[in-house]
Amino acid sequence: MTVFDHPLLDFVEGEYACTEARGHTVYFSEPFADFLTSVRAAGLTPVVIARHDAWWTFAARYYLDLFGGWALVRTGDLFVDPVGAKTGETVSELLEARVHAVLPSQREPELLQAVVSVSVHHAATEQTVLGRLVDVVSGELGQAMPAAWGAHEPATLAWDTATLTAHSRAQMPEVRTFITGGGGALQGIHRVERTGGGVLETFTAVTPIAALDAPTEMVAERATHALTVIAEAFSMPLFGSVTVIPGWRDGRVPAFGTQPIAVPVAMLIGPRAVRALGVDLTVLAARFDVSLAGRQRIPSLVAGFSDPDVPPWRQADELARAFGTDAIARAVAASGGV
């Protein structure tokens, strides 16, 4: 039996190391980060149990998922899995055999959030500045600009790309930082990783993009424009995707409630993947909202799922089918070989 102890630990049940977050908001604090790292180092699975009326920040959920953890809720003597509202009297029972429960509902979503993930590749030179990707994504896609960053929440360092670049260089070969702006409206994780051919920079974030009742085609056009600007701004974009979900202005999500379904609105395929796909733009353009962007010799492909008469998921699926399974496999391999 594994013996494990930590200041945040409330109990260990089998393979699950459990901590109860008793506050109204679950943050990715320094103790929280240490808990996740220590639990995994002990060979256990982290479980965070929140109040049913608690809210999670983007960073807290991101890192819990990254460490393979579970987000649960306590109500009375029961533990609840908010996905599907399943309950159990013990954590093990809940995670291994689930039943239904009913809990108080949370307030209604306030707006549409963009969930964006974009990767670009840089040469490893003194002239490379990191963080500009964050500025471009925020300025073109969202309604909030980055204001602060740090290793965990609360972010206490004023946003500055030169300082972020110096920090990333010192922490290589891989470093993640939390970025926020607009009073929490923008929340994201910035990742930098050294590769065999340079530096890989990825920004994954949520940010407000439109009103709840905004037409899907309008949102798709805005997302498509943002990815086009990214393709023009960086010499070697790798991949980008934008989906939208109902959300809240402060960027948090409720610990309990119906999990929103993400709707794809736009995607970016970088030059290496485009070359591997071997696409015929003339043929694709006759069926889909696609265009080339970036450098003329080795362009990127930007696709928007903006047809109001066809569900966005179907548009994305039909585009993938047009590429073909083998071509997509080649594209993934090409994008990964950085």
UniProtKB/TrEMBL annotation:
It comes from the Bacteria. InterPro entries: DUF6177. Pfam families: DUF6177. This is Uncharacterized protein. It comes from Microbacterium natoriense. The lineage of its organism: Bacteria, Bacillati, Actinomycetota, Actinomycetes, Micrococcales.
